[in-house]
Amino acid sequence: MDRVLLDTNTLIYAIRNKIDIEYELKGVIPPVSPAVPECVVVELNGLGKSKWYARAALEYSKRFEYVHSSGEGDFCIMMTAIHMNAFVLTNDKRFLKTLRNRGVRCMTLSGGHRIQF
Questions:
Q1: Is the pLDDT assigned to residue 113 strictly greater than 80?
Q2: Cα 37-43-47 angle, rounded to 5 deg
Q3: Reduced to 3 states, what is the DSSP secondary structure of residue 33?
Q4: Angle 45-48-53 (CA atoms, 0-180°, nearest 5)?
Q5: Spatial separation of the C-alpha atoms in residues 95 and 97, rounded to whole Å
Q6: Which among 39, 23, 42, 21 is positioned nearest to 90, based on CA atoms?
Q7: Nearest-CA neighbor of 17 among 115, 112, 114?
């Protein structure tokens, strides 16, 4: 089963819009298993000091498998995805463009809830 890496943006978006990522991913073909890179956890920890939604997203992230990563931010997520041959789920348009240019398979949450490739 392929993995899909969840970025910080996606976890916060899910909290703010009351989206169950696991439920939304159930209908995706090919089937994917959600995972959170360690660098996302670090970022959420930092944001959580001043943002309630980041603390909630950090708690929500515990429902998913954590995967080892090194580095920071988008670059870390991209390199982890390349290394694992994984999808990335993000709504960050700039990051999507970067990922696609590097050949990383991408997904977005469209219309608030639908997963699109």
A1: no
A2: 145
A3: strand
A4: 125
A5: 5
A6: 21
A7: 112
**Bond before 30 cis per omega within 30 degrees:** yes
Domain ranges, residue 82 = 2-116
Contact 15, 53 (CB under 8 A): yes
Burial level of 114, CB count in 10 A (0-12/13-18/19+)? exposed
CATH number at residue 97: 3.40.50.1010
Token pair listed for 4: 């899909």
Q: Per-residue pLDDT tens for 75-103?
A: 999 999 999 999 999 999 999 999 999 99
Extract the tokens encoding 53: 């939604």
Strand residues in 60-110 grouped as ranges (E): 65-67, 87-89, 106-110
Q: Which residues pair with 2 in a beta bridge?
A: 32
Give the total number of structural domains in the chain.
1
